[in-house]
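Pasting two entries for a bug report.
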Amino acid sequence: MTKARLLRLSVVLVSIFMILLIIVYWDNVGTAHFYLHTSFSRPRSPGAIAAGEDWEALPDVDEFLAKLLSSSLKQNSSIPRKTEQLLVQGSNKPVVSNLEENVRGYDWSTHKDRNSLDQEKLQVERQRTLREFCANSSFTFPTKERSFDDIPNYELNHLIVDDRHGVIYCYVPKVACTNWKRVMIVLSESLLEQGVPYRNPLDIPREHVHNTSTHLTFNKFWRRYGKFSRHLMKIKLKKYTKFLFVRDPFVRLISAFRSKFELENEDFYRRFAIPMLKLYSNHTNLPTSVSEAFGAGLRVSFSDFIQYLLDPRTEKMAPFNEHWRQVYRLCHPCQIDYDFIGKLETLDEDAAYLLQLLKVDRLLRFPPSYRNRTASSWEDNWFAKIPLAWRQQLYKLYEADFVLFGYPKPENLLKD
């Protein structure tokens, strides 16, 4: 009897210790702001759980964590946020101190004198298209049928979490991700300058924006929470506002090529340009630095780049680089029910509407567009010298992104 009582007492003490440990862990990453601070007008999916609803759809461990966190939140719901006391000076343009940003140039004109889109209807249509094709068994593509639990942690590294405002952003390179990452840094206060969080997105240097240590992403959860990581991910996916931005897949490829191979980029030259020049342009004894190569007129052509994407050896060596990896592989739109789908083609309107829905439009505004942004009208010229068979293969490679996000099939590029 004594041993049995000691055993029961030990179990109780261990349980209490685990609960306290979870509370301490969670407290360190901002659970005081766990609840969703936004309201969207679109209907939630049947499995989605809004603040204040029952938790009966969750498994036992999820229910335990959710109720534990809920009790903690009630005690902290009245904590004021210093950032919410700051008002954006609407007419002042932020000072652009970064050299690269000055070279690229900003277009401020797009923020005024535009007819406002019916954003609510637009979002309903975009989400309807995505859900219909995800549910359509006749439309298939790799990884479509797997569940969220089947996605390995390393494939969740594009999901950035802001616990302060209850936001999850899946970033897609070449789709305004630098500025959206800046916004997430300002909201989450994850980066300080002389002990003070950044308030203006454009003040944040690019090298800090793309530093992986700056952002809390889903793939980091395992190190923090161990076996509870997936449960916490699922709870946040149900409670937080999830958004992503996309663009025409072919235009995104052009933008990636311009950015990584037309400008002197040492890393991309060594990792990608040298193999492309050897494989598809029959060059040997290439310079070791990009500046020497450019000086000698040795540059990857757009044709080399397309051949590289279509070459079956490419994926066997390693997954596509994130700058040309398909959006469905980066953001898992059939496994994650996104609340907001923005498009680069309507970036200014979409960004303003999203910040309003997130109730942070008084804290900051989204930085303006670049003047020299790659345009859809460039497609015909860029693909003019690409053989028809390659264009058709390339479309099949990116077809899921075209279909899921409502981009029309580029028939003019796929026919003689």
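Entry 2 (this is the one that rendered wrong in the viewer):
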Amino acid sequence: QGYIRQCRKHTGMFTTAQLSTIFGNIEDIYKFQRKFLKDLEKQYNKEEPHLSEIGSCFLQHQEGFAIYSEYCNNHPSACIELSKLMKQGKYRHFFEACRLLQQMIDIAIDGFLLTPVQKICKYPLQLAELLKYTTQEHRDYNNIKAAYEAMKNVACLINERKRRLESIDKIARWQVSIVDWEGPDVLARSSELIHSGELTKISKQGKSQQRTFFLFDHQLVFCKKDLLRRDILYYKDRIDMDEMAIVDTEDGRDKDFNTNVKNAFKIINRATEEIHLFCAKKPEDKKRWMEACESERRRVQEDKEMG
């Protein structure tokens, strides 16, 4: 009411995009919090506060708290946009006039915008404190315990999404550096680099190719190093990991490829039964690659569950 309403009236000073960056989805948070507060007040026992049962209220609304994720991830962009405007006196005066008009407490706008970020991190701490002073016999004990875990998960989800956004930024910069890129962008399907390194790829004809591999969620991209400039990579191909099974391969003669292998593993397409054979330099490299491939499947499954 103090800032957004006034900003929207001054179309000459703010574009819709600027307001979207500065305030994010704070109005959605406001609507959600009003409902949460209403339900929380219903659960509060004014006459005998120690008999209040508020745990269920957090559990009921736990999915709704996920909207804080968008706000927290947008917050760094909001700070950058705001600091650009604050370099001009007219914006500093405008925001201060908004604050005085609405008789808000003496905090600058950036302080107000930081509040939701601080708030979502405080819930697990407050519930942990409440749990400490609630006896196990109390009717609310189990719900508070579950609410504490749920709100801790919300905070973790926000941190995970923040980390993922940073990872997406890195992937975009990485792809630009690859020469002769073909096909869709990595980010069309993936959001995280899980493992990378050198492997020897062996073809059905027994030909060995030294390649640099990048395992993302959903896909394995391989590149060739420039012969002279070893820091330059040329795009070669990719493998869709959603169709694949990882198979450990013993040292010695491989019957599928009719060649001797060491520190090898296979990636087999479950639908077409096409086989890709890879050899690592050392046993520990092979172990790391196989673990990374298992981790990739787990990540994909978790992402599905998290939506």
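Dev reply: Rendering is fixed now. As a check, the viewer should reflect this: The mean pLDDT is 92.
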